[in-house]
Amino acid sequence: MVIQHSIGNPNFMKKSFALLKKAIDENRADPINLAYLADRIAVFEGKYQLYGTQFDWDEKGELSPNIFDEMEKVNQRRKEIGLNNMEEQILIMRNRVKNENQLPPADYEERKKKFNEWRKAVGWIK
After folding, report:
1. Mind giving me the DSSP string for the chain?
2. 70-99 pLDDT, tens per residue?
3. pTM > 0.70
4. Using CA atoms, how far apart are residues 89 and 50, in angstroms rounded to an integer?
């Protein structure tokens, strides 16, 4: 019997999103958690993030947010749920990887290719 891992599984993550949204509507969960999940799903689907919570290495070897909506709109959404602005968050994330001696992937294009292969294999993209 094969059990598919739930992390990264589109159906599981989308069901989790709906349940978390309901919990937030009932004041039983923190909207920040929904922002992170919404952005993770958006990144997996190749869409713009609404909150800019997901980061990855870019082609220049810098840790940067994955694609996101217009900066002003993202910053407004972040403010509404209690997050700092994107400019601050980018500095925080870049300082963190520097302090932790994290390095960008040796081959950016290969990493991107493998990520897209994974997204296709698990059903995020066609």
Report:
1. -----STT-HHHHHHHHHHHHHHHHTT-S-HHHHHHHHHHHHHHHT--BSS---EEE-TTS-EEEPSBS-HHHHHHHHHHHT---HHHHHHHHHHHHHHTT----S-HHHHHHHHHHHHHHHTS--
2. 999 999 999 999 999 999 999 999 999 999
3. yes
4. 14
